[in-house]
From TrEMBL, chains A, B:
It comes from Flagellimonas aurea. The gene is hisD. Pfam families: Histidinol_dh (PF00815). It is an enzyme of class 1 (oxidoreductase). The lineage of its organism: Bacteria, Pseudomonadati, Bacteroidota, Flavobacteriia, Flavobacteriales. Binds 1 zinc ion per subunit. The keyword Ligase does not apply. NAD(+) binds at Y124, Q186, N209. Gene3D superfamilies: 1.20.5.1300, Nitrogenase molybdenum iron protein domain. This is Histidinol dehydrogenase.
Amino acid sequence: MQRINYPQPTEWEEILKRPTQTVSDIEEIVNSIFKEVQAEGDTVIKKYTAQFDKVSLESLLVNDAEIDNASNSVSDALKQAITLAKSNIEKFHAAQKTSKVEVETMPGVECWQEKRPIQKVGLYIPGGTAPLFSTILMLAIPATLAGCKEIVLCSPPDKNGEINPAILYTAQLCGVTQIFKVGGIQAIAGMTFGTESIPKVYKIFGPGNQYVTVAKQLATQYNVAIDMPAGPSELLVVADDSANAAFVASDLLSQAEHGVDSQVILVSTSEKLVKAVEKEIENQIQLLSREEIAGKSIGNSKLILVKNDQEALDLINEYGPEHFIVCVENEGFYLENIQNAGSVFIGNYTPESAGDYASGTNHTLPTNGYAKQYSGVNLDSFMKSMTFQKISKKGIKGIGTAIELMAEAEGLQAHKNAVTLRLKSLK
Amino acid sequence: MQRINYPQPTEWEEILKRPTQTVSDIEEIVNSIFKEVQAEGDTVIKKYTAQFDKVSLESLLVNDAEIDNASNSVSDALKQAITLAKSNIEKFHAAQKTSKVEVETMPGVECWQEKRPIQKVGLYIPGGTAPLFSTILMLAIPATLAGCKEIVLCSPPDKNGEINPAILYTAQLCGVTQIFKVGGIQAIAGMTFGTESIPKVYKIFGPGNQYVTVAKQLATQYNVAIDMPAGPSELLVVADDSANAAFVASDLLSQAEHGVDSQVILVSTSEKLVKAVEKEIENQIQLLSREEIAGKSIGNSKLILVKNDQEALDLINEYGPEHFIVCVENEGFYLENIQNAGSVFIGNYTPESAGDYASGTNHTLPTNGYAKQYSGVNLDSFMKSMTFQKISKKGIKGIGTAIELMAEAEGLQAHKNAVTLRLKSLK
């Protein structure tokens, strides 16, 4: 890890640079698969499933028997853990429901705002060795709470044409309406255009490799929305001598094992703590099964010593971390003043992995500095707000002249006329 | 206007097609101006201002004297109208404030969600003959209510290097912190990268021509968010014999005068009403100053006769109109079941222009079918939600095993270890 002592604010930009991804070279392949799927549907999807996932499928849709089998092969202990996580995530997301906002802005001018569910959503869950069933909890639970009618899930099949049982089990438990054995670019294209088997959706959620990321970006050019722009995962910890160095090291490593491009940063006013954490990382990393991955991303990562809490805060707000752990005596200062962070974890007994799995908060969060302007996934991500207004005769009499004057000043005579006609009829 | 009687649902897709825009040919120029502004800042902005707006500027920033002068040249009547609109818009958007959502999901596991303002936002206001000061009300009022620190506005100067007084007056009235005389692609590029004079912002709002639209799309590739994808404005009216045909015609025309690519649609179960509205349009259009524009978009527009309310509703939800006027006896049916619409206007005395200017609702709304998945601009558009969690010793004991099991099942050992270490320390 790089140790950086008391950097000048002018150096922050360079120090806080994230590992960059180049995607322009894969845009072409994504574009061409999209065009093929748009024109030929399932046939093309099956062709690419054979090519990339090495399996020929008759049906893309997972059937009830497959879901029942999957349910039987998940251990009871894991089922209990998933049930506990589901309960917490449900509680926290259900509490985010907002009621109708209703205001009579002037006598006879009633305005209100209501949220209604996005009717059709698509969830993408990557395959590979780590079956990310936790991400299904994070996406399908709020989708179901929001009232989305169709909740479609795509995940790539393995060489035997199967999807990991934990994924199937969690999907049916959380209200997913259809599961498809489709991965990668072809899955995103399928949900964008719709095919003979896969429904077209209005918004696509979920993580993925760089191909999926570019495909989601391209989907936005075809009237589909996405949850947020993607980037490598990241964690910033601010800690002082009140922090347990072993715990801090374990949190930094838990983020580092995600991928070689993950980034972890420790910010501290205490040189003693920085040194202790560095030593703990050296010890703990040797015991990890994903030591090689964690080692590489730890190599990119930084231990930054700063003068005081204000400087630490300014640097953190400049960075805008996806995950932000606060382990300091003066925690109130950070909680009150943090402006840019996806999710905040407070104190020695709040590991980031609690939020990744089971505490109740969502783990789909803005990376790459997007915490400055994007929310993490929440209940509202599956709804849209609509406004309504109803104006009475009295109302239009009260507000009409103002509208006429403003429309005229903007040179929009027909806008004015729509009011004038009504006012005349009431004379 | 095209009259379409009792179309089959299979024909809806074709009937409801929006006028399309091709933008690929202007992407190249947008890309190249972005690269130049990124590299050379103000110098390039001034170069393009000279080229496109035909004026050489010393300073891009509007100064206090210019704002004072502008204020003096806006009529008192217009000021009063703007003040009334501001008051209504403030009331409706202030009511959208949400409080902290706090849940103890399990004993010792406290989770909460808070919204914090996006620190730096940019507003784009087009120039030309129609000074859209009303859009400043719609963007700067919620930005100020949200607590955004920097609210930057860019609008192109005229040949004399000036911005319309109504724009300057409204901007200062609504809390804009800096106003720049910059338009088009170079304005969006300036707010994306920041220059010597223009601050870099985190999110850009506001309408514009196709160059601005493409520039906003490109900005999203440089870590900037935008309000929503843009498209031509549109209105759908559902009306029966309880509607006033002259009022309906005036609303359709008020939308049609926006631009030649605007789209207006009337859906009705009453042939009598359809014919009456058609006749009213023919009469009213002759009196409009923007008759030529309105005539062209009316040419693209449709009068659709349907069998019953259910069919009307299904067709409307399939279309997802930006503006939706409901003028029917059975209005409750539509209000309850409309799923996809930007803003809904109810009854004979609620012209769409009320919402465009002064009733209190926002006029920045999803077009092009995006009402299926996007909200119109509202208070939350200027904030992001962050989550927080604090787990006690008791809390981690209660939740720890579930996290360990799930992390293990996902093959993420370091995630598990972060919990195991803490649980061990508590034995």
